[in-house]
Amino acid sequence: NAGVTQTPKFQVLKTGQSMTLQCAQDMNHNSMYWYRQDPGMGLRLIYYSASEGTTDKGEVPNGYNVSRLNKREFSLRLESAAPSQTSVYFCASSEVMGGNQPQHFGDGTRLSIL
Amino acid sequence: GDSVTQMEGPVTLSEEACLTINCTYTATGYPSLFWYVQYPGEGLQLLLKATKADDKGSNKGFEATYRKETTSFHLEKGSVQVSDSAVYFCALRRGHNDYKLSFGAGTTVTVRA
Hints:
The complex is a heterodimer. Helix content of chain A is 0%, strand content 49%. Chain A has strands at 4-7, 10-13, 19-25, 31-37, 43-49, 56-57, 64-68, 74-78, 87-94, 104-105, 109-113. In chain B, strands 2, 5, 6, 10, 11 and 12 form a 6-stranded mixed sheet that branches. In chain B, strands 3-9-8-7 form a 4-stranded antiparallel sheet, with no helix packed on it. Chain B has a two-stranded antiparallel sheet with strand order 1-4. Chain B has strands at residues 3-6, 11-14, 19-21, 23-26, 32-38, 44-50, 56-59, 62-65, 75-77, 86-93, 101-103, 107-112. Chain B is 0% helix and 50% strand. By secondary structure, chain B is mainly β. In chain B, strand 10 (86-93) and strand 11 (101-103) form a beta hairpin. Chain B is built from no helices and 12 strands. The chains are: A mainly beta, B mainly beta. Chains A and B meet through strand 5 of A and strand 6 and strand 10 of B.
């Protein structure tokens, strides 16, 4: 049972570099999410995709873009990385948005921007 | 706006001790409440949930009761094990059709043998 798979697990970037974080789920879920986790702040939603073909901004979208490539995959792109984007990034999915459907999380990508 | 406040950690306990992690919330309407657990090196997992006032969520020996009068959802376990060492997050979803989960800052719990 793979669930939600994120790649890479760790990455170090220099300021100004770009990179894409990959996320794939094998649970046939409709909705997918990207969060960042910072010490003392819990998780904050960056972007979400309610269903294939749609994406919307969350709480902290600045500096990021997303692509819902197909039902399984939802990628997060940093076009020009900044030290403030050093964080742990989590992808999550749920069967549908809202309701009492739990979100299933990947193991995270630890990203450091120097 | 909606917010969740958790007791600050870290919390260190001996095996078989009682654990309580306080969580209070601010929200309009009737939110659903959740506790998520994050084991070292892993993502978050749903531990338990409650969707209306006076509901009690329970799982793996943990319990939490949705108290609307005190806007609280405290997590409790009567006898912890080393394997309960993790970070615990309280979260709320405002309404049935709302996508957004608002998380507390997390409480790190370490259980010593």
